Amino acid sequence: MTKHSLHSLLLMACCALAPSCSAQNEPSNDEPAATDSTTTVNKSEAEWREELPHMACFVLREKGTERAFSGEYWDLHEKGTYQCAGCGLALFDSDHKFESGTGWPSFFKPAEGSAIVEKEDDSWGMRRVEVTCSACGGHLGHVFEDGPRPTGLRYCINSAALQFVADSTAVQGVRYD
Ligand SMILES: [Zn+2]
């Protein structure tokens, strides 16, 4: 085997790692998933459009914002984990959710420090800090400094960017970190 074809194979194996939000609709005839723990999910925008529901795609891939009080999770009080709707990475925990009155799910801290990426966002004439998923790069929402104690932070997240998994149905033994 040439060096070049080995490289191609490795690339294909990496792509096969990406968990899909609509995996149940696809034949699973890909190579077996590698056990490598890298969580970087790379898909083309066309693939995302095909796989994600309209609102999730609008938020995650186009940095859209759902209307306040329109999402699935702003008023949810169940115990569980909020995962990225794009790639399944655990992002927020119900223990850190609070009533912000904004109409968007709000958390005072992420489930794990490394699960999200924060970067400055100057769009719409405002200086805000954008929050994205560290694994797939999907846009989640913004973080503001007017949250409750102990962090003083308010992660204002779109429901459409999240997938809630109640504690009772959480899959045991699956780790995304
Ligand atoms: Zn993600």
What sort of overall outline do the alpha carbons produce when their principal axes are compared? globular
Distance between the termini: 33 Å
Bound molecule kinds, no repeats: zinc ion
> Structural class given helices, strands, pairing?
alpha+beta
Biggest pleated-sheet summary: 6 strands, antiparallel
Report helical residue fraction: 10-25%
Task: Spell out the blueprint of helices and strands.
Elements: H1 3-16, H2 45-51, H3 54-60, E1 80-84, E2 90-93, E3 97-98, E4 106-107, E5 116-121, E6 128-133, E7 139-144, E8 154-157, E9 162-166
Antiparallel strand pairs: 1-2, 1-9, 3-4, 4-8, 5-6, 6-7, 7-8
This protein binds zinc ion.
Describe the structure in your own words:
The protein has about 180 residues and is of the alpha+beta class. It has a single domain (about 45-170), classed as Beta Complex (Metal Binding Protein, Guanine Nucleotide Exchange Factor, Chain A), CATH 2.170.150.20. About 15% of the residues lie in helices and about 25% in strands. The chain has three helices and nine strands; from the N terminus they run αααβββββββββ. It has helices at about 5-15, 45-50, 55-60, and strands at about 80-85, 90-95, 95-100, 105, 115-120, 130-135, 140-145, 155, 160-165. A six-stranded antiparallel β-sheet has the order 3-4-8-7-6-5, with no helix packed on it. Residues about 10-40 have low confidence and may be disordered. The protein binds zinc ion. Zinc ion binds near residues 135 and 138.
